[in-house]
Design a protein that fits this description.
The protein has 177 residues and is an alpha+beta fold. The chain is 49% helix and 22% strand. It has six helices and six strands. A hairpin with a 2-residue loop joins β5 and β6. α1 packs parallel to α6.
Length: 177
């Protein structure tokens, strides 16, 4: 029984190492691909596509601050419908979540079912988004916008996913700057 138990532990550890290696390899590939783009839109499109793939989620977006720093606009999306991204700007004043993110907070919600969180909650439900993880895009103290990944599953993002997505967000922010 002890040998069998140790064998299971080794299998779990082996799977965790394989997963970590796969993520790091994907992150390296993302860095290489981002580095090849000189066009800002292509760079953002590559980042959203790669982040969705690496994180194993249904969708991803980069929302950038407007020059007046009052609104966020979808600058690049992957896996989101035209209806979802065609909404007016997301007002920082009307969106407590985005205001917190712009101020530097990591935002993760495991169950999107409370309307008070969002400026356009009906669009989120129609899109099939069950959980999300959003991080501020910043370089030093300068906030550029918000990078989000969206899952169709509830409680999809844990601490490990948040830490890994933070690496992707930082790399993307540096490339944009």
């Amino acid at each position: 029984v002890t040998l069998r138990s140790k064998g299971r532990e080794l299998l779990v550890i082996s799977k965790q190492l394989d997963d970590s290696n796969s993520k790091l390899t994907s992150l390296y590939e993302m860095i290489k691909e981002i580095d090849t783009h000189t066009n800002l839109q292509h760079l953002m499109d590559s980042a959203t596509r790669q982040a969705a793939r690496i994180m194993g989620v249904k969708a991803c977006s980069i929302k950038l601050l407007d020059p007046d720093r009052q609104c966020l606009w979808f600058a690049s999306t992957y896996g989101l419908s035209e209806d979802y991204v065609s909404a007016d700007c997301i007002s920082i004043e009307k969106s407590a979540i985005n205001r917190q993110i712009i101020q530097g907070s990591v935002y993760s919600i495991g169950r999107i079912d409370e309307e008070s969180y969002f400026q356009y909650p009906e669009n989120i439900r129609k899109e099939g988004i069950a959980s999300m993880l959003c991080l501020p895009m910043k370089v030093e103290q300068k906030i550029l916008g918000v990078f989000c990944v969206y899952s169709g599953e509830q409680h999809f993002f844990g601490e490990e996913e948040a830490e890994f997505f933070s690496l992707m967000t930082d790399l993307t922010s540096l490339a944009l700057e």
